Task: inverse folding
């Protein structure tokens, strides 16, 4: 592993309000302490961001850039938020590189960032695959007491042979003395839930067939651990990810049937999603339905992003200070039979949005992209006013035949 210490000019990044963000992303602010991640997951969507560091995606788990001055820069940015009364909205820490990869135990930059979040009462969300998050339990508890933190961990399979192939390096560094199996992440989230942190089980990516085998047990374990909510998204494949994923399975030789299933699901029946491909809308629909029903059965919240009718989330913690998503507008339309632009803006103003959001929202509203293909919603334009009505008979979803 090569470690390269770099200075950053900014820590907080304000994401663009693209199609995906406007519909599904409850956050806009991100901050990455590390670029590159030694966990080495073969399905990593972030590896390609190494191009921005003039490095190859193949070196994402080997060349780690450490933003050594990130706490100082973050502190200056936080002061601006306090001075100009910018609205505080949840900051996702480490969305493209795990902030609790073992190198954190040397630098403790994540700890310093959390200390600042606590000092400035800034809401934050951490996504990690490592139990090293428990090293900062004291700070997490302080933030949780003020409803200022959410933590998500990924669990996709209890098949240890499979997970060792797809997440080859998690737990193999000196700083963690045992291999970390996915089941142990539920125990980690259990500890975090027990101190009042807002916790999320990320079934992301959902591996068709492999996750199917364990999904009920995973959700029932998550419920026993008192994890707050489940989030699910099926695996997406780029040529780069498919090559890595299929190669580790082929080399292992015990998962050949998975390769054939995926060729059919993705390359014959799948669809394009930006630069990647995913499974068909029909497949996604039935996955969301299945996960939602299991979450209901075991009494745990489910954030259904693409098919809002399956949502059972329990919004809480740092995500109280999130951006609105189409689910919020859909719920309003369902409750009231329709939603007009003024209603939508009044609703959006309950969230910590900025002017940039409102400007882009108008475009999405008028073009119909906000609700495109969404269950129960129909676009109406009368005398230059565009609004949306809700009704069971306006279901414009793809066919719902069992997949
Ligand atoms: S933990 Fe996340 S960032 Fe790190 S390799 Fe895995 S998927 Fe990529």
Result:
């Amino acid at each position: 592993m090569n470690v390269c210490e770099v200075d950053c000019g900014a820590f907080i990044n304000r994401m663009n309000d693209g199609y995906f963000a406007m519909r599904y992303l409850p956050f806009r602010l991100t901050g990455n302490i590390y670029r590159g991640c030694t966990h080495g997951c073969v399905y990593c969507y972030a590896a390609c961001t190494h191009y921005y560091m003039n490095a190859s995606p193949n070196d994402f788990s080997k060349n780690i850039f450490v933003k050594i001055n990130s706490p100082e820069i973050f502190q200056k940015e936080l002061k601006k938020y306090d001075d100009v009364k910018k609205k505080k909205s949840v900051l996702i820490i480490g969305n493209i590189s795990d902030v609790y990869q073992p190198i954190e135990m040397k630098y403790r930059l994540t700890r310093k960032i959390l200390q600042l979040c606590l000092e400035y009462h800034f809401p934050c969300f951490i996504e990690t695959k490592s139990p090293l998050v428990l090293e900062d339990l004291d700070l997490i508890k302080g933030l949780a007491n003020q409803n200022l933190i959410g933590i998500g961990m990924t669990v996709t399979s209890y098949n240890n042979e499979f997970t060792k192939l797809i997440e080859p390096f998690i737990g193999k560094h000196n700083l963690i003395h045992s291999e970390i199996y996915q089941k142990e992440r539920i125990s980690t989230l259990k500890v975090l839930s027990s101190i009042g942190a807002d916790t999320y089980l990320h079934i992301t990516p959902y591996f068709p067939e492999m996750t199917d085998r364990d999904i009920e047990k995973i959700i029932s374990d998550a419920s026993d651990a008192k994890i707050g909510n489940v989030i699910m998204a099926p695996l997406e494949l780029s040529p780069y990810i498919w090559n890595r994923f299929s190669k580790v399975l082929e080399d292992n030789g015990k998962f050949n049937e998975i390769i054939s299933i995926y060729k059919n699901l993705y390359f014959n029946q799948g669809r394009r999603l930006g630069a990647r491909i995913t499974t068909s809308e029909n497949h996604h629909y039935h996955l969301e339905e299945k996960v939602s029903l299991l979450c209901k059965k075991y009494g745990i919240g489910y954030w259904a992003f693409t098919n809002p009718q399956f949502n059972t989330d329990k919004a809480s913690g740092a995500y109280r200070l999130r951006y609105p998503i189409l689910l919020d507008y859909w719920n309003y339309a369902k409750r009231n039979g329709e939603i007009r632009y003024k209603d939508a803006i009044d609703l959006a103003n309950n969230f910590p949005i900025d002017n940039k959001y409102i400007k882009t929202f108008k475009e999405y509203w008028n073009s119909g992209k906000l609700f495109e293909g969404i269950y129960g919603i129909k676009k109406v334009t009368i005398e230059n006013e565009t609004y949306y009505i809700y009704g069971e008979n306006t279901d414009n979803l793809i066919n719902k035949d069992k997949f």
Remarks:
- The pocket of iron/sulfur cluster is lined by residues 37, 39-41, 44, 46, 97-98, 129 (CB under 6 Å).
